[in-house]
Write a structure and sequence with these properties.
By secondary structure, this protein is of the alpha/beta class. Helix content is about 40%, strand content about 20%. The strands form two sheets. Strands 2-1-3-10-4 form a five-stranded mixed β-sheet. The two termini are about 40 Å apart.
Length: about 280
């Protein structure tokens, strides 16, 4: 924030003395009464880097935080967690980092970029599909000619998807090379989960792997098939204050708001689960 401009002025000595006496009297009155002058609320632009899957939920949380903190503006930057971590590592100005997986956060922590992270939500995978394609179950994802969308392997949603396919291949409900057959139908790999949602919504893919929160947040009017918890690794979302933050106290308040009962209620309304 810009520093206050200094203004030179000349005052009579007796006026200066009167002001000094008034200030001393005011301080004495406060000491006697026990009253403490209110600390002015911190204001400024708080920059929050958040995983793409948090788009709608954090937009809502940011609005509520701003309402509770007059003078504060929350600027949100959404993308794949791996991209956000790289941006912070390269010096991008950020105050808070909310990741969709522990791996991206661990990298930021090891590099000394953020403070101690706190897990604030869980998420799970689902498959969304167009109504006019012949997908009626997860088993149908191996059908010849199907065009699938998923996140790239370096993105959290891509890593979780590949773990799920490995687990499903070991599940007797499917078959041993199920994951390999599904991967053969992958037509596009996106850098974040919002890209997968858009590919399916636009008909550029017949089906795609996304988070359950995306179905709720986007109001997706598509078929959706949840992947059983036993066949996946639930996504864990950690949040931390960036050490280079220009507003560390305010950033900590935002983190505490996210993990508060009010914050978790908002997250649950957008399809996230509370951390165990």
């Amino acid at each position: 924030m810009p520093g206050a401009q200094r203004t030179r002025f000349v005052q009579r000595e007796d006026v200066q003395m009167n002001r000094i006496s008034f200030s001393a009297a005011a301080v004495l009155a406060l000491l006697v009464s026990g009253a403490v002058p209110a600390r002015p609320a911190e204001s400024g632009v708080l920059t929050v880097f958040a995983a793409a899957s948090l788009h709608d939920a954090f937009t809502d949380i940011a609005a509520k935080f701003e309402a509770a903190h007059p003078g504060v503006t929350v600027r949100l930057n959404f993308d794949g967690s791996q991209i956000l971590e790289t941006q912070i590592e390269n010096g991008a100005p950020a105050d808070v980092f909310a990741s969709a997986d522990a791996r991206s956060m661990a990298k930021a922590t090891s590099a000394g970029l953020v403070g101690t992270p706190v897990d604030f939500a869980h998420n799970s995978l689902v498959v969304i599909a167009q109504f006019d394609v012949n997908v009626r179950s997860l088993r149908d994802l191996t059908r010849d000619g199907l065009k699938l969308a998923m996140c790239a392997e370096q993105a959290p949603c891509g890593r979780y998807t590949r773990i799920a396919l490995q687990k499903m291949s070991a599940d007797k409900s499917y078959w041993r090379d199920y994951g390999d057959q599904v991967m053969r139908n992958v037509a596009t790999q996106e850098q974040n989960v919002e890209g997968v949602v858009q590919k399916v919504l636009l008909g550029e893919a017949d089906a795609g792997f996304v988070y359950s929160s995306d179905v709720v947040q986007k109001g997706v009017k598509l078929l959706n098939y949840p992947i059983p918890d036993a066949d996946q690794e639930l996504a864990t979302y950690p949040i931390a204050v960036v050490k280079a933050s220009a507003y560390p106290s305010l950033a900590r308040e935002f983190l505490e708001f996210v993990i508060s009962a009010q914050g978790r209620t908002v997250l649950e309304s957008y399809g996230f689960r509370s951390p165990s």
